[in-house]
Design brief:
Layout (H helix, E strand, L loop, with lengths): L2 H32 L1 H8 L5 H8 L3 H22 L5 H21 L3 H5 L2 H25 L5
Length: 147
């Protein structure tokens, strides 16, 4: 297998995984921002009243930034699959907004006290993935794989 074919397959696999990951994030955003009644019905048996209060009293700005985060992530993933340079700034916007959203969740709420390690694990996965995708896209651009 040639080096070019390997690069193409790697970019395709990472692009598809990035798109699936960001679509899951977008669906999570839609559920938390616009379908709170369904969330209450679905999760109220699994969480205490205090924990549900944490989820339901999230400030509006959080949802705005969360929306920016997920939509820019999806756009970046599509741009990466299309081999467009615009993927890099989209991944940067996604990364910065991820840091704001997850930073608020970890440091600006009582999530850790109320949820324990559950409140830490997913934010750290999201942050790590966002950092990887930004730097991967940057590297792909530097290798002139994007137009």
């Amino acid at each position: 297998m040639s080096s070019k074919t390997s690069k193409n397959k790697t970019l395709l696999v990472i692009g598809i995984l990035a798109l699936l990951w960001n679509i899951m994030g977008l669906l999570q955003f839609i559920m938390t921002a616009f379908m709170q009644d369904i969330m209450i019905e679905t999760y109220s048996e699994n969480y205490t009243a205090q924990q549900m209060e944490l989820f339901l009293n999230t400030p509006t700005w959080y949802y705005v930034v969360f929306g920016i985060c997920t939509t820019s992530g999806v756009a970046a993933s599509v741009a990466l699959l299309l081999r467009k340079k615009i993927a890099v700034p989209f991944f940067l916007v996604s990364l910065v907004s991820v840091l704001v959203v997850q930073g608020f969740w970890l440091l600006g709420t009582e999530a850790i006290d109320l949820l324990g390690t559950e409140a830490i694990v997913m934010p750290m996965i999201v942050i790590t993935t966002s950092i990887f995708l930004f730097f991967y896209s940057k590297g792909v651009k530097q290798n002139n794989w994007l137009t």
